[in-house]
Write a structure and sequence with these properties.
Chains A, B: Keywords: Membrane, Transmembrane, Transmembrane helix. Chains A, B: It comes from Methylomicrobium album BG8. Chains A, B: It is found in: Membrane. Chains A, B: It is a multi-pass membrane protein. The structure is a homodimer. Chain A is mainly α. Chain A has two domains: about 400 residues, no CATH class; about 130 residues, Transcription Regulator spoIIAA, CATH 3.30.750.24. The first copy, chain A, has 29 helices and eight strands. In chain A, the strands form two sheets. The first copy, chain A, has a six-stranded mixed β-sheet. The first copy, chain A, has a two-stranded antiparallel ribbon with strand order 1-2. In chain A, helix 9 packs antiparallel against helix 24. Chains A and B meet through helix 16, helix 22, helix 24, helix 25 and helix 26 of A and helix 16, helix 22, helix 24, helix 25 and helix 26 of B.
Chain lengths: ~575, ~575
Amino acid sequence: MRPTDFLPIFGWLKTYSRSDLQGDAFASAITAILLVPQGIAYALLAGIPPQLGLYASILPPMLYALFGTSRTLSVGPVSIAAVMIASALASPEISALHQPEQSAVMLAAETGMILLLMALLRMGSLVNFISHPVLTGFTSGASILIVFSQLPPLLGLAKFDCTWSLGCYADTVRTANPAAAATGFCALSLLILFGRPLTGLLKKTAMKPAWITAVSKCGPLLAVALGAAAVNRFDLHTDYRVATVGPIPAGLPALRFDMGDYAHWRLLLPYAVLIALVAYVESVAIAKAIANLKGEKIRPNQELFGLGAANIASALSGGMAVAGGFSRTMVNFSAGARTQLAMLAASGLVALALMFFSPYFAAIPKSVLAAIILVAITPLIRLKNIVDTWRYDASDGLAEGVTLLGVLVLGIEEGITLGIVLTLISYLRITSHPHIAVVGRIQGTEHFRNVKRHEVKTWRHLLLLRVDENLTFANVNYVEEFITDQLRRQPDIRHIVLIFASVSYIDSTALEVIEGLNDTLKNRNITLHLSEAKGPVLDKLQKTDFLGHLKPGKVFFRTQDAVNELA
Amino acid sequence: MRPTDFLPIFGWLKTYSRSDLQGDAFASAITAILLVPQGIAYALLAGIPPQLGLYASILPPMLYALFGTSRTLSVGPVSIAAVMIASALASPEISALHQPEQSAVMLAAETGMILLLMALLRMGSLVNFISHPVLTGFTSGASILIVFSQLPPLLGLAKFDCTWSLGCYADTVRTANPAAAATGFCALSLLILFGRPLTGLLKKTAMKPAWITAVSKCGPLLAVALGAAAVNRFDLHTDYRVATVGPIPAGLPALRFDMGDYAHWRLLLPYAVLIALVAYVESVAIAKAIANLKGEKIRPNQELFGLGAANIASALSGGMAVAGGFSRTMVNFSAGARTQLAMLAASGLVALALMFFSPYFAAIPKSVLAAIILVAITPLIRLKNIVDTWRYDASDGLAEGVTLLGVLVLGIEEGITLGIVLTLISYLRITSHPHIAVVGRIQGTEHFRNVKRHEVKTWRHLLLLRVDENLTFANVNYVEEFITDQLRRQPDIRHIVLIFASVSYIDSTALEVIEGLNDTLKNRNITLHLSEAKGPVLDKLQKTDFLGHLKPGKVFFRTQDAVNELA
């Protein structure tokens, strides 16, 4: 392992150029402009004081910049992790502790430790077991939950405390605070205008694309500034009871960590595991999407390490759990970021904001923050995707729909767990029915193909079977039954050749079953042969008595050789 | 579905012959001789009154005979299920209810319902996820636990209540009851003599093999009869405090079922799930082994139904959970059983014994039953198997060893759960690293093989890759990385052909990743092609835009065609 494998930053610093610096400097300003309102908004979404989101925007991006392999991923507070934190803090056993802030910080620490442990165990590829459909279903479901959770702050309502009574919802909506709702809707309109309408307009001018991005991404900052100004100017907080962020401690966070007790860690563990899993899978998906565009490479195990370090750093500086954010990363990239220097600078700017501007944050109306979250989250609700996935593969579409419903009906953790279990079950179901083809020779070639799909020559005493998967405990029974079925249909068969061209691994269960099958076949005067077996498979079989028991059955190099001898 | 699929008994009754009857009648007597002492012994092993084992030997085999697909499987009380029941009843939350008998019957009912549910969901093939090494490790571990659990009754000791203090064990052994230990060791010697020594001797005579089996299997009945006679003759129970079975209610069980409450069912659920899983996997393994010898066929989903019905029947008649027993099935088969009529008759004989001989059971010494269990269980301890498995496949050997240790150190349920989790993880690890080969053409043929293993021709601008597995969320990232790596090593490549001969399924995650890869390659002026793609795969791809996006990349029928055009 080279030093740059562990600290990728030194890999790209060596070739750093002036044009890189220009792109990074510009992108850092735009990303910082996004980080401040998002940090505050996502902390409130998680149900914790706003500074926890800002603290999570300083050290974690710096640590990720050192250890991460993506050059443009923006690590910091993200909406999906925030709603998972909210769900953990709202669970009866954790809310009974009445320490939401302490719990949130410990959750970040535990998430970081789990990620580091996974990095140590080199589990970067194992965590593939969240499939895209399950992830999309989960994200859509969580986003819908977030949309509903933001309606009360947007409208200045009391929290919904209704179950299935429509009247109760109507009563709650009637408690809306007109002043809060007005600022919320103004912010919403501003943000929507700053989206496609403004960029569409600007594209017709001669403005550079990077500047268009820059201007359009100022929406949240502008909304926050205007909202705070309105609160101050019209005394909205005191005279009209418009909820605001409230005082935020000025200055940088102290580096300290309150250990808490074992029972507390234990309670947080299942939530931390799921947050770590989702944070990792989402971050790598985003990082890969961008890296592919530029032909760069993401190393999953190093990502685990980078994200783990970022979360530990967040906890040490009193922040919430972090991950790579989709919208922020896209902004960072399209604003021209070339390397993680952009994120280093952006987090420096957030630190400056915290030192010098925090008094101004107090007056930001919560309804404006709700509008920011709503605009950021809506694109993540991809209901049509379920239909598209279903059309291509019904079981994937089902998994996506069920995960979404699971999140909505059962809850965040239950939904993602259900999705993972569904993925595993469908995976086992598929792989336990391997593809096996009876093959024959295409006339005039040495090419053997499926008898069902091609015009091929077959022989009366000879059965050629191509097994298209590794043989394991999960599928060998199916293979055995397939062969038994074929023999029942073709009683004249005297030789069976298993074409192992695609078999690279036979586990010990499969070997036992094939040994048993060979004995059964021998009793019935049928000889089993192999062909096209690969080197590693043969090497392993040679360690056992199998090839001896196979005799007079042979191992042929090519299927053609088997046909020449047996047909 | 034909009626005989659901009631296999009517399939073989139609061709039933006189010679079948002879074999079945003889085998039924031998199996009944085994069923009575085993039923009592396994009930005591489970920690419940002896009649629960006898009741489980009457209706359950009858129900299995109707619905099961194996002609010789002997369903009834078995040692591994008994020790799992003992473990469930000994758990703090269930023993706190002080209703061991009621709990055991409910456990049988719940096990039966789970098996029926699995049958309904057609999960016969899904439950393959217990691999042979894990099953062998579990069986060995559970058998070692059983051996230790039988030392106190064999020696007439108080139960061991020691942890890590050797002195405590020594003290407990000193409480041994000499009279009990003497009867125990006499029984042990008798049983061992009735094993290999007696059969070896009889083989030298002109006795028929079936009669040799019959005589050698009378050991347990003889031991029980002699033990009871000794207890009666020498007043061993009253004068020497030799523990005996005690009174057993005479006559057949009443068909009734006490529903219990929801909380009780809930507590038993995890145990019932594991008992159902182990009962099913063990039974099918035994049934298949015998069916293969005779060229018969076991249908897993129907087995789930048969075993489920047998367990429900056991619960309704006040019996314990049942499964197919290895030793009893082998005895039944080698005594000449041809069909389930043998088991029907055997269970009738057990019913007669319960009606007319139950007063004689009371005097059976527990030490003799312990000896019977010890002799039956010892062959299931297969420690050397771990070494053999390890030699063939280290990860399988590890799983077997860890499962065994898990059972011994953590407990029965924890051990089997650990084993299943290990199997799944190693399975995901293997399948997430699919075999991919860079291939070239073997000169003078149209045969393409791995460049690493064969002398083949390759081309500078053309990369031929054979993917040897279905593409799913679990392995597609590996495939993508493999291709990216190859391109880094061979920068001259302009065309990549993915040979899909072994690919029969591409899930939606894999499709997305390959679409992304195709975009990346296009940006770098490299064209992606497919070859040898199978019909079903092409059919599915045609539902998407993929083949359109692939252009100018093509889909070649044979790899040779691709070489002709691109090389």
